[in-house]
Amino acid sequence: MEALRVETIIQPNGRIVLENLPFDDGEKVEIIILETNLESVSTNDNPLKGTLLNYDDPFEPAVIATDWEVLS
What we know:
The protein is largely without helices or strands. The protein has no helices and no strands. It is elongated, with a radius of gyration of 27 Å. The mean pLDDT is 84.
């Protein structure tokens, strides 16, 4: 399946015109329409870059030894 991405503007009459598509005449295609919302698009590829991470004891066991039933 070949995918094609096209950005266009809806005409005042509510129509969308797609021209010069790389498909054969009569070929069956599926069209999915998504609204482009520029405000919600994040351009930050590293959202945690520069944030402080602090581990007090990174090698501390997640469960204390007295809670392990297997040790009894």
